[in-house]
Amino acid sequence: MVSRATLANDAPTNDAHELPSVRYVGFAGSRGHRGQRLGTYPNFLRASLKNLRPWRIAFMAYLVGLAFVGFWPAPVDKPISHTLTAALKYLHGLGMPGWLDYHFVEASANVAMFIPLGIVAAKALPNKPWWQLAAIGLMASVCMELGQLLFFTARFSSLTDIVTNTFGGVVGIMSARLVPQTGAQKWAAR
To answer: From the CB of residue 121, how many other CB atoms can be counted at a distance below 10 Å?
Structure first.
């Protein structure tokens, strides 16, 4: 059955969102139900978020973006390294703890860079267990660091980067898997 979603002109609105309801208008067919109601607009939006194609496109695009960052010939923090070092030195003079140094900021940036990869991977591949998705983050990080080691003299590869990148991916995976569950539990409790 070929069908398309359309807005009904005389459809009732959802009071909470003031958006018109959405219906499936199908063409005649042996399996189709003409005029089958899909639900209110927010439900239609929720159903479209479960479509895997946009998540998979975003996943591939993010991997390409990571490749650009990982295989850039010069360190990506080079333009701001002197400014960041000066800012940290100033903050240390104001009493900021000494452990919050350039290496800590760099490790935190590595974690933050891979959190979106974990989120998008969990949404793009919802049937995979978390450890297989974490392996994707691990392999992406290993490829980046190995490429830096073999092809770029200005870049420095390290085991710490692999660990922090993988940790960021796991944080993203867990947040993508746990946040919708806790949100659904809060909604059900109302």
So the answer is: 29
Q: What does the pLDDT look like over 106-142, one tens digit per residue? A: 999 999 999 999 999 999 999 999 999 999 999 999 9
The rounded distance, in Å, linking the Cα atoms of 42 and 24 is: 15
Q: Which amino acid is at 155?
A: R
**22: β partners:** 7, 39
pTM of the predicted protein model: 0.68
Instruction: State how far the Cα of 55 lies from the Cα of 51, in Å rounded to an integer.
Output: 8
Q: How, if at all, do strands 3-7 and 22-26 pair?
A: antiparallel
User: Phi, psi (5° rounding) for residue 72?
Assistant: -70, 135
| Spatial distance between the Cα atoms of 154 and 149, rounded to a whole number of angstroms | 9
106 and 36 share one domain: no
For residue 7, give its domain range. Answer: 3-47
